[in-house]
Amino acid sequence: MFHPRGHHRHSLHCILPPYLLRSVAQNGTGPQRAAALHTAAVDSTFRSLRFASTQTAQRAPSRIISGMMAESQCHRSIYDLQGQETFPGTLARSEGQGATGDVAVDEAYDGLGATYDLLWEVYGRNSIDDSGMRLNAHVHYGTNYDNAFWDGQRMVFGDGGGDLFNRFTIAIDIIGHELAHGMTEDEGPLVYFRQAGALNESMSDVFGSLVKQKFLNQTADKADWLIGAGLLADGVQGKALRSMKAPGTAYDDPVLGKDPQPGHMRDFVRTWEDNGGVHINSGIPNRAFFLLATQLGGYAWEKAGHIWYEALRDTRLRPDCGFARFARVTLMAAARLYGEGGAEDTAVRDAWNQVGIPVTREKVSVAFIPPQQGVPASKPSRRPNA
């Protein structure tokens, strides 16, 4: 697929950050350390393979090709790797088939469907690439593999060891998070490094949380705003991998360590680890979105979600975009969607100010186009054939 801004195929996107695996390798029992080191080695191999493949070929995902599509249709395939590390595995469930009784297979199927439904029903997006891309997931990867990842073409889920992490299909927002990386890649911007990478991770947390909230029919004030609730095994001192409401409070455990996420720019973490802190500093824009959604009220996937989605697709969003520029882009998106100077405009400003990022509007004109019900305001797309 030609992309006017070029292809930005980034590092392998794993739900567990490398610093968490490092903590387990330092503090865990012998089996826990071995599992963490094996997981890190597998992740590193996939990162290298992905980097090599993107240097030699353009991505060619399986898509549903048609003319003018009157309606969208989800196409899911779930494969069982049965503890092996060789793809594709055995097809366990395909679109339209009933539950299999394998909890990982069925959770993956439901999670892919919930993500697809959010994108189509709320944002009018036909799968993660907006062109009907098939959604493939592979479960039961390896032995006690403690991670889940999106590699540009498919979702892969480990079963976890059971003592620190449960199966990685257990949290629907993890599935939404990983698939949202594919949406961000398709739109082109946000290289996986430093602030741009933290925005990339935050975008996935935002849409992963929205997938869960819509699936549960929760308003912003009723949602837990946790990423990965249920993933931590019994006995682990924590409730999730991250908290969008209160970054830095998700876990504090002798083996996992303490959640390092900041929620304000005064606590911004400068590090070379984790691609420059992409999983750490994502707490700052995460909290900004939480503040916006709760101030606006109602369902977070509506006004707040539309603003973030429009910002992601804005041509002013550069690949190396930092937090301050992204904040300005969200403000312009709010003006396009809901008019300048209104409650939405004020809420966007307030949210960024509360995380230490004062935001001002760039000197550009924005036309107010009232959004249709369930569909964001129209504007030029990045794609030349849209």
UniProtKB/TrEMBL annotation:
Residues 190-357 form the Peptidase M4 C-terminal domain. One of its GO terms (biological process) is proteolysis. Gene3D superfamilies: 3.10.170.10, Neutral Protease Domain 2 (1.10.390.10). GO terms for molecular function: metal ion binding; metalloendopeptidase activity. InterPro entries: Metalloprotease_M4, Peptidase_M4, Peptidase_M4/M1_CTD_sf, Peptidase_M4_C_domain, Peptidase_M4_domain. CDD domains: M4_TLP (cd09597). Its EC number is 3.4.24.-. Its main location: secreted. Keywords: Hydrolase, Metal-binding, Metalloprotease, Protease, Secreted, Zinc. It is found in: Secreted. Extracellular zinc metalloprotease. PANTHER family: NEUTRAL METALLOPROTEINASE, PTHR43579. This is Neutral metalloproteinase. It comes from Corallococcus terminator.
